[in-house]
UniProtKB/TrEMBL annotation:
Coiled coil: none annotated. One of its GO terms (molecular function) is kinase activity. This is Kinase. NCBIfam families: PRK07667.1. Signal peptide: none annotated. Keywords: Kinase, Transferase. Residues 22-196 form the Phosphoribulokinase/uridine kinase domain.
Length: 197
């Protein structure tokens, strides 16, 4: 894994003093993004590269905005899971110019969002991890993009036993949205580096 991380990160633009670089870690559900990010963060810290990590799933909206909306389930997941324009304006557009971010952060237990203030160092590698990161509205903000590619059957086997039982939800919500993303955005082709996971 360490060698894979080294190869993936070696082409990222060198971080200079007073600079921020935005790195995207994209991939479909259960493709290994979280594991990769954890190991990459450890590796970069060894190299004394300051890292700020963001998980895009921390900024999803409340359930009432993404379930039972009269839209098809795949559309809810792809288009309504996040407030895409709000994140563009208040997250992506602020990453390189603001000293701190004020982000609506989601709490799963209470199904609520609350504003969280996140300070940003002047010099930092801003690592963003999540699914559908290369959608058209966000794609231009990244300086470098890594995509983790993994077959659906392998990803599905990584789900918990209880989650696997709801196959209909995967078929109607998750997999259709993933197919739409792959067909319309071509994330593997758009990425700067692809890892087969």
């Amino acid at each position: 894994m360490k060698e894979t991380i080294q190869l993936a990160l070696q082409s990222i633009p060198k971080l200079e003093s007073g600079q921020r670089i935005i790195l995207g870690i994209d991939g479909l559900s259960r493709s290994g993004k979280t594991t990769f990010v954890k190991k990459a963060q450890e590796y970069l810290q060894e190299k004394q590269v300051p890292v700020c990590l963001f998980h895009i799933d921390d900024y999803i909206v409340e359930r009432k905005k993404r379930y039972n909306t009269q839209h098809e389930e795949w559309y809810e997941y792809y288009q309504l899971q996040w407030d895409i324009e709000w994140l563009k304006e208040n997250f992506f557009m602020e990453l390189k110019k603001s000293k701190e971010l004020h982000l609506l952060t989601y709490d799963d237990h209470s199904d609520t969002q609350s504003v969280r203030t996140i300070p940003l160092p002047e010099t930092c590698l801003l690592m963003i991890e999540g699914v559908f990161l290369q959608r058209e509205e966000w794609r231009s903000f990244y300086d470098y993009m890594i995509y983790l590619d993994c077959p659906r059957d392998k990803r599905f086997q990584r789900e918990s036993a209880s989650t696997k039982q709801n196959l209909e939800k995967f078929e109607n919500r998750y997999w259709k949205a993933e197919e739409y993303y792959v067909e319309t955005v071509s994330p593997m082709e758009q990425a700067d580096y692809v890892i087969q996971s």
